[in-house]
Amino acid sequence: MSTLSHQHNLPSYLDANKLGAWDMYLQQVERVTPYLGTLARWVDTLKRPKRMLIVDVPIHLDDGSIAHFEGYRVQHNLSRGPGKGGVRFHQDVTLSEVMALSAWMSVKNAAVNVPFGGAKGGIRLNPHHYSKGELERITRRYTSEIGIIIGPSKDIPAPDVNTNEQVMAWMMDTYSMNQGGTATGVVTGKPVDLGGSLGRREATGRGVFTVGVEAAQHMGLSIQGARLAVQGLGNVGGTAAKLFGEAGALLIAAQDHGGAVLKDTGLDIPALLAHVAAHGTVADFAGGDPIDPDNFWDVNCDILIPAALEGQITADNANRIQAKLILEGANGPTTPQADDILGDKGVVIVPDVIANAGGVTVSYFEWVQDFSSFFWSEDEINARLVRIMREAFDTVWQTAKTQGTTLRTATFIVACTRILNAREQRGLYP
Questions:
Q1: Annotated active-site positions, please?
Q2: Alpha-carbon gap, residue 126 to 282, rounded angstroms
Q3: CA distance linking residue 154 with residue 148, whole number of Å
C-alpha cells in the first residue's frame, strides 16, 4: 500500500490494505492538488464517487442451473454532465477497479472538454466460459438492475474490455423495453443500424495515433522509420498499430495474454491483425519470432503502446523499457512508481486520460447524433476527432511546460480544474 493512502480519509467500504487501482488514482490526485489553487478546497470531491451501485445478476445457464454474478456501476462525478464510461466483463473486476476507472473517465472527459462526467461498470465473470445466449441473459439482467441510475441524460454506458457492439445492442434494447420506448442514446458504441456512429470502432486507436504524432513532433521524433512495440492487439492497440504502420513506423514487437512476437525488420501489421482476429492472440504468428512475454519490456523501440489492462508497467520492469515515448492506450497501465522511474529516465508518457480519449470523444458524437437523429459522415467524424484531440493535447503540453510537470499531472491539472470549477459554480445542494 502506498503511504499516500494514509493521507486520505478512506470510506468505510474500502480496505486500506487492498485499495488496488483506487490507490493509484488517489496518488495521482495527491500530485495534482498543489496546482489547484483555491479549488483545492473542493479536492475531496475527487476522492469520493458520487454514487455506486452493486447488483446481483442471477440467470439461468444453458444447463438449467442458476448462476449469480456481481455487477457494478459507479458514477464518480456528474458536475459537468451525465456519467459516461464503459462496461467490462472480466473475472477480476472489483469495486476498487471500477471506482478508479470511473474517476479516470471524469478526468478523461474533462481533459478533452466533452460535457460528460465519469462513470464505469463491470460484471465479474470470464465471458469466454459462457455461451452467447448466457452472455445475452447476463447483459440484459445487469441492464435491468442498473436501469434505475442510467439513461440518455443520466449515465451512458459504452463498450470496454470483453464487451462490444452486440452487448451494447442488448443493453439498449433492454433499457428501451423497460422504459416503453426506444432510447438509442442510453448507450454508445452500438451497431450503426441502431444509431451507432461511424468511426466509433477505430476512434480510441485513432486518438492514440493522433496524440502520438503530436507528441513525437514536439520531441523531434520522426514517425517514419520509428520502432514501435504494442501490448494488446485488440481494438485500440490494433488500430493504433495499423495507423502508425501506414505513417511509416515499424511494428517490431507485439505482446498479449497469449504470448509475444518479435521481428526486428518489422512485422506485417495487416497479417498480424488478421491472425489475432482468427486466433484471439499474437501467439503462433508465423511472421515473427516468438519471445518470452516478459522479454517484451526489453525490446529496443522508440514508441511503446500499452493497450491491454491496468498495472502493466511497474517498478519491476520500468527500468528495462527503452522507449522514448509511451502512449497509454489502456486505462492505468503505468503505476505511479513506474511513472517516476520513467520520468527520471527522460521518457515522455502521454497518459491514458488524454491518449485514449478518442473513444469517448466519438461516443459524445454518437450521443449528439442520437439526440438529433441526424448523422454525420465518417470523414466528418474523423476530422472532428483529430481536431479535438490535437487541441486537447496542445493544452496539456503547454500546461506541462508552464507548470514544469509531467504530461500526466498536466492533464490532471487541466481536467480537475474544469471539474472543480463546475463543482464550485454549482455549489452544494441543499
A1: 120
A2: 20
A3: 10
User: What pLDDT is attached to residue 178?
Assistant: 98
Closest CA to 282 of 297, 295, 298, 293: 293
Residue 3 scores a pLDDT above 50: no
pLDDT at 7 > cutoff 80:
no
Q: What percentage of the chain carries pLDDT values higher than 90? A: 92
What is the value of pTM for the model shown? 0.92
Question: Scanning the structure block, which residue is given the C-alpha cell 521518457?
Answer: 347
Rounded to 5 degrees, φ, ψ at 9 are -80, 90
DSSP state of 104: H
- How far is CA 197 from each of CA 35, 363, 386, rounded to the nearest angstrom? 37, 8, 16
Cβ-count burial 154-188 (b if 16+ within 10 Å, e if not):
ebbbbbbbbbebebbbbbbbbbbeeeeeebbbbbb
The answer to whether the beta carbons of residues 223 and 200 sit under 8 Å apart is no
Number of neighbouring beta carbons within 10 Å of residue 430: 2
**pLDDT, mean over the chain:** 95
Q: What is the pLDDT of residues 144-201, one digit of tens each?
A: 999 999 999 999 999 988 999 999 999 999 999 999 999 999 999 999 999 999 998 8
d(CA 366, CA 188): 6
Query: Which residue has cell 506485417?
Result: 268
Residue 384 corresponds to which cell in the numbers above?
472532428
Query: In order of start, what are the domains of the chain with their CATH numbers?
Result: 1-48 (no CATH), 51-183 (3.40.50.10860), 201-355 (3.40.50.720)
Pick left, alpha or beta for residue 84 (phi over 0 → left; psi -120 to 50 → alpha; otherwise beta).
beta
358-372 vs 95-111: helix crossing angle, rounded to 10: 80
Each residue of 348-383: pLDDT tens digit?
999 999 999 999 999 999 999 999 999 999 999 999
Got the DSSP string for 348-410?
A: EEE-HHHHTTHHHHHHHHHHHHHHHT----HHHHHHHHHHHHHHHHHHHHHHHHHHT--HHHH
Lowest-pLDDT range of 139-143, 145-149, 308-312, 315-319: 308-312
Give the residue carrying C-alpha cell 445542494: 429
For 50, residues 6+ apart whose C-beta sits below 8 A from its C-beta are: 75, 76, 77, 78, 117
Crossing angle of helices 95-111/21-32, nearest 10°? Answer: 40
> H-helix or E-strand containing 126?
none
